[in-house]
Design brief:
5 helices, OB fold (Dihydrolipoamide Acetyltransferase, E2P), single chain, two-stranded antiparallel sheet, 7-stranded mixed beta sheet, 204 residues, alpha+beta
Length: 204
């Protein structure tokens, strides 16, 4: 076989291996795992969308899919500023809402809760692994609860749900809940200067 033929075969094999590796890292090839022996762990770095948990004997940080809660401090000033502009409130108001989101999650997760995860890595600097997760408490998705209370916005990593629901349909439902919270000026939307678009009139 000519040398170019060997090179072509090697390049194809490398491409296949690279694609498989990237797919594994993204979590697309992993199946959902349901964890129901979980408890919330207090930690100074916890906030509304990312918090320490212990499931069985495994400790990790659960990072919620689809949502972003306000920051609790100025550790990431650019992000806090961007959230301030998004919600249409001051930076101090954003951080206050962030602390409320953190405390609300801590209170809610004193009850029994369930985590669905594929252990897709969510980054972070902690030595403890940080996995994207769906969290259910009282039969309700935690992400939806936070958005409904105005304590999170629709933003972040997306995926089809553990029950098979398409991510687009779920994302649209969250958007509806976010708009309702904004109209009622709940949570981080309190005192917002963001203009709420008028609902279209339905012809009779």
């Amino acid at each position: 076989m000519p040398r170019t033929g060997y090179i072509t075969i090697i390049m194809l094999m490398l491409s296949v291996l690279l694609a498989q590796n990237c797919s594994a890292k993204s979590g697309k090839t992993k199946t959902w795992t349901k964890l129901d022996d979980c408890r919330y762990l207090d930690n100074k770095s916890n906030d509304g969308d990312s918090f320490y948990v212990m499931c069985g004997t495994n400790e990790f940080i659960a990072r919620l899919y689809f949502v972003d809660s306000p920051e609790t401090d100025l550790h990431f000033p650019d992000r806090t500023q961007e959230q301030s502009e998004y919600f249409g409130v001051t930076i101090d108001a954003v951080m206050k809402a962030g602390r409320t989101a953190r405390d609300t999650v801590r209170e809610l997760l004193q009850e029994h809760f369930i985590i669905h995860t594929r252990k897709a890595i969510a980054g972070g600097r902690s030595a403890v692994p940080r996995y994207y997760s769906f969290v259910e408490v009282g039969g309700q998705p935690l992400a939806e609860t936070l958005v409904s209370l105005g304590l999170a916005r629709v933003k972040g990593v997306i995926t089809n749900l553990p029950d098979g629901e398409n991510w687009r349909a779920y994302n649209e439902r969250l958007r509806t809940k976010e708009n309702e919270a904004r109209q009622k000026q709940l949570g981080a939307w309190a005192g917002s200067t963001v203009i709420v678009p008028a609902s279209p009139k339905v012809r009779q």
